Every structure is written in C-alpha cells, then in structure tokens.
Q: What sequence folds into this?
C-alpha cells in the first residue's frame, strides 16, 4: 500500500513538472474552434506568415467558442489573464458583451490595426464606445439560395426572386406551395434567426444606440413579426423541431430553399446529388421601410488580441487577414468567406463555384459591403431569449404589443433596470 | 380464486409492459448513437434507424480530425488515478469518521456534508487561481486533484463502515493487529462491493467531467474525450456520422466498466438501501 501511494505521488509530481506551461518569447498561441473552417484558415495564415517571419512559433489550439468565454471569465475573475492565449476567436454576437464585462482582457486595437476595407456593419460587432477591439474574419452575410429545379416546376426562375420585397416573396411562395406542396423556407421553431435577419436588413436592432432595449417602439420589429407569422400561417415558411431537422430539409429536398448566413452553403453543398440545382441571390426587403435593404448578417466571428501578451507580434501576424493570397487560399479548402473587401481581388473569388456553377463568393463579398450595422451590446442573448418567447407566444395567438412589452420588461429586468 | 389469479397476471403484465417501455426509452439514445456511427450525415438527418456502411469512413475522419489516442490516454490516465486516490483517501476518511467517531469528528463530518451543497461552479474561480499559481494547468494532477476526495464518497464509505461488525475490530485488536492492519486486512476485503461501486461512480464522474477539464486542460495534448466530442459539434457544418462515432468511442469505456462491476455495484447499492 505504501509503495502504491509513493508511486502515485511520484507520478503526480512527474506529470506536474512535465506538463507545466512555458511562456516563451516569439511564440503566438491561438484559440479557435472548427477544424475544417477557422482552424484550417489559421493554419494557412500560419504557413504564409512562416515565409515572412520564420522564427515565430505559432500554436493553434482547438477550443469551443463557449469554452473560450468560460476560460476568459475564469481567468479575468481570478486575475490570471496570463493563462489566456495571444489571439482568440469570438462570436460577433458575443464580442461587445465580452469586451464590456472584461475590458482588461481585450486589447484596444484602434489606431494599431489598419481597418480600411472592412465593412462598417462587420466592424460594429467588435466596437465598444467607438474603440475597436476585434479583427474581422468570416462573413455571416445573408444569402437567399433556392433549388432551381423546384422553382422551375412552379414556373419561376431565380430572377423572379431577385431584388423583390417580402410581399412579392409571399405571393410567389403561396404559388410554389400550391404547385409543389413545398414551403419556400424552413427554420428551427423557437429560434428567431429569421426575425433578426429581417430586422437587420433594414438597419433595425434589438437595442437603441444608447444600449437601451428597443422592442415596443420598434416599428421594423413589429412589421417583421407580422410578416413572419403570415408566412408561417400560409405554409410559405415551415418551422421544424430542431437545427438537425432544419439541415435535414435542405439535404432531403423538403423545402425550396433557405435564407441564412452564407456559412449555410457548406450544409447545402454537402449533398452532391443536388449539384447544379441551386442558385443564389439576395434576400427580399421589407416594403415601405426607410433604409430597408436586401442585405443582412447572421453569425460570423472576429479575432481578439489579449492584453498583456506580445501585441505587436500578434498584430504583425494578423496582417495576414489583409492579404489577398491568404483569402485566395482559404476559399477552396475551407469555404471561409472573408469580410475584407480586398478579398474579392483573389482569383478564387472570381472563379465559378463548381457546385453552383456561378461565382457565388464574389457575389457574397459584394453583398457584405451593403450589410447595415447592428447593435448587439452586452445583453444580446438576454434580449434574444426574451424576443424568442414573445415570437412563440405571438405565433400561438398572443397579442403582439403585449408580447413585445413583456419581452422588453424581461430584458430590462435582466439588465438591472 | 380465479379472479385473484387473473388480477395478479394483469398487474404483472402492466408492470412488465411499463418496465419494457421505460427500458426502451432509456436504451434508445444509446442505440441511436451507436447505429448512427454507421451512417453518414444525410442518413442520420433523414432519421435512418438501421446501420449503413460508413463506420470505417466515420472513424477514419474522426482520427484524421482529432487526436483520439491522446484524448483516450488523458481520459484513462486521469480517471484511473482519480479512482485510486479517491478510494484510498475517502475510504480511510469514511472508516475513521465512523469507527473513531466522537462529537468533534461528527461536527467535522457535518461541515463536510455542507460542502456537498456548494455547487462546483461556485469554487471554480478560486480553484483555478490556486491551480494556475501552482503551475498545474494542463497537467493530469491539475485534473484529478480537486476530485480525489469528495464529501459524497466519504459519506458513502462512512455509511458502509456502519455495517462493519465492531466485534471483528475488537477481536482483531486482541489478536494483535494494529489499526492500519485492521483497515487493510479486514475492512477492505469485507467492503469489496462498496469499493467496486465507489470505483464505478468515481470513474464515471471523472471520465464524463467537463467543466473543470475545459478550464484547466488548455492545450491540444491535454484534451479529454468529452472535450474532444464537444469539439466535433463546433462549426458551421457538422458531420454527424463523425460525432456519433466519437460519442460511441467515448461511451464504451464507461459501459464496459459498469458491466464489469455491475454485480458488485448492485450488491453495494442494495446493501446501502437495507
């Protein structure tokens, strides 16, 4: 027994010494998620940077986005920021919240990084009090993509769905539903992605510029909810039970198309038998609303640099995100579409996508430039949850104004008002 | 008489029907995960409930994307070390609290029991601060040290020690055994079912633990199996076949351990209920 205890203690000591972290100069540690997307893109950046600065060691660790937030929270509250990496990826919708709660962690990059060419709508996600804390990466630019073979059955083409408003979309949707039995769009019940996409397309947010919640007096929000309910009632938009079921509708052809962030194209293109049967265009806009556009955003992420680390070296490395060669290389291997306007100069962006038979990536970069900015704030997910409840109740027959009031009250309560 | 017999059969039929339905509901997620490991994403999303031919491809992709061997080694290493340490420390503590109890030790035990009420998340920050100052981030020791003695296990062994006959201890003392020898040579052999069930519980907790490892194990080389599986769920495009292959691989060790120790586990639980 004594021998066993001694052996175990010796082993613990050995493992402790062997595994202790060593902070080294000339080394950049990066936390990000998704091996086929963010990690692969970062590896390409690393390889390209090695040609410029071969002495720098770059270590990329796979960490989930929510785990990064947990680690930042733990490190910031325990005053151990030195346990964080030099660079970490952050979901755009969480960026402002994290900077507001843990300003000591996120480096202020205003005046230190060249932001020319990045769209204002994307930069707004990582901007707090006019100071930029993020380097934009992938676009969540919204695309509308439809099965052309199904549209043809109903007598429509992709041109009929380009540059239209939601009234016309519903009209076409009703006709397509009558002729094919399929809904134009599907979405996860209880998720309000579609509602938020429609709101942002006309520059509306869940928050005012001063950070106060904005549901009751938000005319765009009311209009969007009315359109959303109408589409569901007419069967133009079919709600399904889960995200998996939503992906399933795209994979098994039980809907005509989808309107979502451009990252959904990976799911669409995962079904080889439908190659050449999809087309891409812009989303419908809200009729009669000032500032309404055909462009919106859903998802996407930006890089954050951690205070206290070697910011200059990390900033030098992050110049890769303003490099045409980098964007050209990541596109075919990851399908990651950058938000930097210079990316569209890359030859791969101008080339036809094999699956779609069209230069869809150049189109998406073009859309990105027109996306209106969105106010996310520190309580984005609280507001989103409250609005989700309001949408569900409204769909079940609740009064729109009462539900929006309840959502606003709940969000205000969570914000401490 | 006949009516009574018929009523008995009906009751039994209802009982068995209920148990079969509940068992099927319990087993279904495991069945679905296992079967889905043989299918590709399209088949899984399409609701296919029978195995297809993609198991090898899913496993190949899983091993290509993730360092499964390293994650398995980390999970096994940390879990086994945690089981050994937790059993050694908690059983000695539980035995001591019961056999040598007085009002001070009982008071201390009550304080320990109170610690059970504190959720782990409440101690996460100070614990992380402590371990990072000790340079124990990304080490096996950092993983298992917080779980090496839990109030639950101490209470579990203390309750089991109540069934340990006091006369045996007296007899052993008269025969010349010292206190440590009594514990080693008499208590441990007699309490094997308790040790087996405690080992099962501790192994499962250690293997499945996620919150602590995800803050303390920060490098690719220190990833554990649950962290690896959750990594597979990240991203815009999820390969559900690979996820299910990962889930199956991650579940197998705990299932095997449970089946190996099942008899002892049920004996100990039944004994504890008595």
A:
């Amino acid at each position: 027994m004594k021998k066993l205890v001694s052996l175990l203690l010796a082993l613990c000591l050995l493992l402790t010494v062997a595994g202790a972290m060593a902070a080294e100069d000339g080394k950049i540690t990066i936390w990000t998620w998704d091996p086929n997307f963010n990690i692969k893109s970062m590896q390409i950046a690393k390889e390209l940077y090695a040609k410029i600065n071969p002495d720098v060691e770059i270590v990329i660790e796979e960490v989930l986005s929510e785990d990064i937030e947990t680690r930042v929270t733990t490190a910031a509250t325990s005053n151990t920021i030195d346990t964080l990496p030099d660079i970490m990826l952050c979901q755009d919708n969480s960026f402002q919240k994290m900077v507001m709660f843990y300003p000591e962690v996120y480096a202020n990059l205003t005046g230190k990084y060249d932001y020319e060419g990045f769209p204002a709508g994307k930069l707004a996600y990582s901007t707090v009090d006019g100071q930029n804390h993020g380097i934009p990466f992938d676009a969540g630019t919204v695309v509308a993509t439809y099965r052309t073979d199904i549209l043809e059955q109903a007598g429509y083409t992709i041109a009929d769905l380009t540059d239209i408003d939601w009234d016309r979309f519903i009209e076409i949707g009703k006709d397509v539903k009558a002729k094919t039995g399929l809904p134009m769009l599907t979405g996860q019940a209880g998720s309000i992605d579609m509602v938020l996409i429609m709101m942002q397309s006309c520059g509306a947010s869940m928050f005012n510029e001063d950070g106060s919640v904005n549901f009751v007096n938000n005319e765009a929000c009311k209009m969007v909810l009315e359109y959303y309910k109408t589409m569901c009632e007419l069967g133009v938009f079919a709600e399904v039970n889960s995200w998996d079921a939503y992906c399933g509708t795209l994979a098994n052809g039980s809907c005509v198309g989808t309107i979502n962030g451009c990252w959904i194209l990976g799911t669409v293109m995962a079904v080889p038998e439908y190659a050449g049967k999809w087309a891409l265009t812009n989303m419908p806009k809200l009729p009669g609303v000032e500032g309404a556009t055909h462009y919106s955003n859903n998802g996407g992420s930006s890089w954050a640099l951690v205070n206290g680390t070697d910011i200059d070296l990390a900033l030098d490395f992050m110049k890769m995100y303003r490099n045409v060669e980098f964007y050209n290389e990541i596109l075919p291997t990851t399908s990651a579409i950058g938000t930097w306007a210079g990316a569209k100069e890359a030859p791969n962006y101008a080339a036809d996508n094999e699956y779609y038979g069209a230069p869809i990536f150049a189109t998406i970069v073009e859309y990105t430039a027109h996306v209106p900015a969105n106010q996310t704030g520190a309580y984005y997910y609280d507001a989103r949850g409250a609005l989700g409840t309001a949408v569900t109740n409204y769909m079940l027959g609740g009064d729109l104004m009462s539900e929006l009031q309840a959502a606003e009250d709940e969000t205000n309560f969570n914000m401490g008002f | 008489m006949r009516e009574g017999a018929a009523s008995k059969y009906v009751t039994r039929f209802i009982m068995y029907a209920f148990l079969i339905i509940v068992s099927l509901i319990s087993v279904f997620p495991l069945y679905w995960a296992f079967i889905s490991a043989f299918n590709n994403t399209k088949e899984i999303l399409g609701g296919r409930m029978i195995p297809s031919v993609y198991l090898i491809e899913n496993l190949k992709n899983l091993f290509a994307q993730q360092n499964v061997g390293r994650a398995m080694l980390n999970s096994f290493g940390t879990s086994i070390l945690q089981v050994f340490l937790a059993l050694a420390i908690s059983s000695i503590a539980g035995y001591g609290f019961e056999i040598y109890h007085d009002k001070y030790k009982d008071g201390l035990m009550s304080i320990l029991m109170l610690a059970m009420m504190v959720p782990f998340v409440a101690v996460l920050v100070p614990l992380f601060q402590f371990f990072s100052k000790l340079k124990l981030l990304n080490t096996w020791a950092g993983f298992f040290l917080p779980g090496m003695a839990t109030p639950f296990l101490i209470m579990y062994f203390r309750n089991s020690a109540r069934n340990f006959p006091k006369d045996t201890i007296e007899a052993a003392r008269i025969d010349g055994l010292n206190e440590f020898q009594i514990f080693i040579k008499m208590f441990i052999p007699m309490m094997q079912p308790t040790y087996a069930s405690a080992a099962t519980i501790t192994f499962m907790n250690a293997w499945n633990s996620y919150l602590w490892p995800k803050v303390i194990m920060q490098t690719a080389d220190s990833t554990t199996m649950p962290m690896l599986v959750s990594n597979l769920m990240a991203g815009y495009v999820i390969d559900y076949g690979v996820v299910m292959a990962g889930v199956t691989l991650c579940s197998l060790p705990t299932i095997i351990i449970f089946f190996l120790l099942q008899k002892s586990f049920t004996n100990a639980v039944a004994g504890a209920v008595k």
Remarks:
- Confidence is low (pLDDT under 50) at residues 4-23 of chain A.
- The radius of gyration of chain A is 23 Å.
- Chain A touches chain B through 47 residues (CB under 8 Å).
